[in-house]
Write a structure and sequence with these properties.
Radius of gyration: 18 Å
Structural class: mainly alpha
Shape: elongated
Helix content: 55-70%
Number of strands: 2
Largest sheet: 2 strands, antiparallel
Order of helices and strands: HHEEHHHHHH
Strand content: 5-15%
C-alpha cells in the first residue's frame, strides 16, 4: 500500500531533521577533536592559561576569546594560538554554517509547532559559544558513546541561539530572528529528551 502524501511529507521532514542533526554532530565532533590537539600543544607552553575559564566564539574569520577577567596579553596569546591553526577556524565556521542551515525557517515546509529561525545565518557567530557548547554536549548524556553524545550538539546549539536571541531582544536589540518561546525544539523530540 502506498503511503499518503501527508505521511510522505512527514517522513521527508523527519529525515531532513535527522540529516541536519547528523551534520551538526559530525562538524562539532571534528571541531572538538581538532581543538583538543591544539589545546594540548598550547598546554605545554601555558597550562595555567589554557585551563582558565573562558569561552571561544567565531567573529567573522577569527576565533575570539570571551572573558573579561583575562588580561589583554593573555587573551591575545590565546586568540593568536587558536587562530594560528587555520583548520580549527575552518571547522568552527563549518559548525556555525551547519547550525544556521538546520535552523533557518526558510528550509522547513512544516515545522509542526517547533521553533525555527529566520535570518539566523546573520547572527549565528554571535550566538555560538564553542567551549560551553562542547561542555554542555558532553554533560547531556554521561556514559553514552562518543557519537551519540555529539548527536546532542544540535539541541545545544539551538538552545544557545534561543538564549542569545532572548538576551539580545531584552537589551533592546533589533528583532533579527523570529521565534515563539512556547514552541518546542526542532531536535528535542527527535533526541528523545
Amino acid at each position: 500500500m502506498k503511503a499518503s502524501p501527508q505521511s510522505q511529507r512527514m517522513e521527508r521532514r523527519y529525515q531532513g531533521i535527522l540529516d541536519d542533526e547528523r551534520a551538526i554532530a559530525w562538524s562539532m565532533q571534528e571541531f572538538a577533536l581538532r581543538l583538543g590537539g591544539v589545546t594540548e600543544k598550547m598546554r605545554v607552553l601555558r597550562p595555567d592559561l589554557v585551563d582558565a575559564d573562558y569561552d571561544l566564539q567565531l567573529d567573522g574569520s577569527r576565533l575570539v576569546i570571551l572573558d573579561d577577567s583575562l588580561d589583554e596579553r593573555s587573551r591575545i596569546w590565546l586568540e593568536e594560538s587558536f587562530n594560528g591553526d587555520r583548520e580549527l577556524v575552518r571547522l568552527a565556521r563549518a559548525v556555525n554554517d551547519e547550525a544556521a542551515h538546520a535552523l533557518d525557517i526558510n528550509r522547513h515546509d512544516d515545522t509542526s509547532g517547533r521553533n525555527t529561525y529566520k535570518g539566523v545565518d546573520a547572527t549565528i557567530d554571535r550566538s555560538v559559544r564553542f567551549l560551553s557548547a562542547l561542555k554542555r554536549t558532553m554533560e547531556m548524556e554521561e556514559g553514552c558513546g562518543w557519537t551519540r553524545r555529539y548527536a546532542h550538539a544540535a539541541l545545544v546549539l539551538e538552545r544557545q541561539v534561543m538564549e542569545d536571541t532572548y538576551i539580545y531582544r531584552a537589551k533592546g536589540g533589533a528583532v533579527e530572528l523570529e521565534r515563539n518561546l512556547n514552541r518546542s525544539s526542532l531536535f528535542e523530540v527527535d533526541l528523545h529528551l
